Amino acid sequence: MKALWLSAALSLGIAPALAQEVPLDETLIRQCLRGGGDAQCIGVAVEPCIAGLGGYSTVAHQACARAELAWWDGLLNEAYGTAMARARDSDAANATEIRASVRPSDADALRRMQRAWIGFRDAACGYEALQWWGGTGASGAEAECLMRMTGEQALALQGFARER
Amino acid sequence: MSIRGALLLIALLAGPVQAQDVPFDPARIEACLANSDVAALCVGAEAAACMQKAGAGSTGLCLGTENAFWLARIDALAARLGAGSGLRAERAARRGTPSPTVAQLAEAFAAYRQVACDLRVAAWEGMMTGPEEIDCELRINAAHALYLTALLAP
């Protein structure tokens, strides 16, 4: 199924005049993940999406990277919710040790990690945006960075939830 | 536990394997990075080979040695990025928006690494905490080194 990412494109700041329906084929990402591709699945739908918009352009690159970013962001939110539920279960099972300060709270540690990750993501992608600014690699660099880091974090959170 | 504390603990627990005896060859990581399409596959492999060769008591030293390899790589790459700070400042002025400095990127990374590894070791107790934390730091440091390498790619 091809998702239409018009609303996502608008909310993420793609210029309205250029925010045509972005043909992101999310099944490519799902299939890749089912095949065990993990982090290598991040960005897998971008090139076909660009082709679907008639070929490479700065606007198409940004729109497709941001559309896939929106997909990974959805997965990240879902994964964070699952991870937090597992962390709370773990805290409940270890409540005595946590109250006695023998063991840290998983939920607090998870919250701190996610907050620090947001700071790191913003710093890294802000840095990267200027690194390529003005050059041939500039288009979509920040969106690609956000997509990659969000995807990696979503997969890391899924891993955390599986292990707890 | 800080990385220094963990390294100390590991050194104390290392038993018969001494730092100078660690069968760790950084050239094999370099060769892997030069020849592999997926650089992430080069992370942790040398530490694993080191542990296999050195046997019991080597876990912390092998992980710590590979972690030191990636930390040194981050430092070298950050220095190279820092050398381009003049050009970045010029770009930021032309672009009209501020951008994080290398130091701010490093600070945000260090803060993230600390709490990410705190989370990973939260479920571990006692003697396993140290090696688990070093393994966590190794993997996060390696990922960051690979990221910085890509940033410097032509």
Structural summary, described in words:
The complex is a heterodimer of chains A (164) and B (154). With 164 residues, chain A is mostly helical. Chain A contains seven helices and two strands. Chain A has helices at residues 6-11, 26-34, 46-52, 58-93, 95-99, 106-131, 141-163; strands at 3-4, 23-24. The longest helix of chain A is centred in the middle third of the chain and has 36 residues, at 58-93. By secondary structure, chain B is mainly α. Chain B has one domain. Chain B has helices at residues 3-13, 26-35, 45-54, 59-83, 85-95, 102-121, 129-152. The radius of gyration of chain B is 18 Å and the shape is globular. Classes of the chains: A mainly alpha (164), B mainly alpha (154). The interface between A and B is medium-sized, with 31 and 28 residues.
Question: Could you give a quick summary of the protein structure above?
Answer:
Chain A is 68% helix and 2% strand.
SSE topology:
The complex is a heterodimer of chains A (164) and B (154).
Chain A: E1 3-4, H1 6-11, E2 23-24, H2 26-34, H3 46-52, H4 58-93, H5 95-99, H6 106-131, H7 141-163
Helix pairs in contact in A: 3-4, 4-6, 4-7, 6-7
Chain B: H1 3-13, H2 26-35, H3 45-54, H4 59-83, H5 85-95, H6 102-121, H7 129-152
Helix pairs in contact in B: 1-4, 1-7, 3-4, 4-7, 6-7
